Amino acid sequence: MPTVGERLMAVSGSLSVVVFLLLGFVFHAWAWAWLVFLVPGLVWKWNHPGEGRPRNRR
Description:
Distance between the termini: 40 Å
Keywords: Membrane, Transmembrane, Transmembrane helix
Strand content: under 5%
Transmembrane segments: 20-44
């Protein structure tokens, strides 16, 4: 069974497009509405805090 974080990550891309279009068309906020596309990356980083860092190779 998928966790809540996995479910949220699965819908976050589509949800960000819907929110972007809603902000743009309804509130005419095109100039800053693109920031919602950063949310899926932040959700992924929140669920995988140690991944993506370079290893210290000596």
